[in-house]
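Thread amino acids onto this structure.
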């Protein structure tokens, strides 16, 4: 398959679907992976580039260790206008890190952008393939509720803010099933790498 390098795979999926596991399989196959969640932690962490703006917009939510997640969460959770304000600060900073990543790996055959809200935002416009990680609801629920501090109420609240899995699957170029064993998941990732490399 001939394509201007690199071929960009947009990796996404709802909470508890196994996206991190799929990303790790791409890394195992030597594809560089940009982790949007890690980038958010970086810009909000100690000396993060977004800290000063976040503190200005949400006083008392940052400190020497970066963003105080519980305080910032309380400031924006369930408040769409406040959440938008935070996104206007964080997203451009994360976007710059993504551009650096793309530049660093511009000569590679394949790169992967691991972006949880790829389809909810405009990120899908910058990729060549949308890959959605999915699993049956009962598998997703069991995975999420096994996380420390997670409750059924929190899980329901997260789902309410994410695009439904069925919609994501319909928009995908390829769906990776993670509820039917690791071997099938790995084979799917490996076959994609073979096609696009």
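Threaded sequence (197 positions):
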């Amino acid at each position: 398959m001939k394509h201007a390098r690199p071929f960009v795979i947009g990796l996404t999926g709802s909470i508890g679907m196994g996206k991190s596991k799929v990303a790790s399989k791409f890394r195992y196959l030597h594809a560089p992976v940009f982790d949007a969640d890690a980038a958010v932690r970086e810009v909000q962490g100690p000396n993060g580039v977004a800290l000063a703006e976040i503190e200005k917009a949400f006083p008392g939510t940052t400190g020497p260790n970066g963003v105080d997640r519980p305080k910032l969460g309380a400031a924006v959770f369930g408040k769409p206008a406040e959440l938008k304000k935070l996104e206007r600060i964080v997203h451009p900073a994360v976007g710059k890190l993504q551009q650096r990543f793309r530049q660093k790996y511009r000569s590679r055959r394949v790169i992967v952008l691991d972006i949880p809200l790829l389809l909810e935002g405009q990120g899908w416009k910058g990729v060549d393939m949308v890959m959605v990680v999915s699993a049956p609801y009962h598998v997703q629920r069991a995975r999420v509720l096994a996380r420390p501090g997670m409750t059924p109420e929190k899980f329901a609240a997260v789902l309410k803010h994410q695009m439904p899995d069925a919609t994501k699957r319909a928009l995908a170029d390829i769906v990776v099933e993670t509820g039917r064993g690791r071997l099938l998941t790995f084979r799917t990732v490996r076959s994609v790498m073979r096609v696009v490399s």
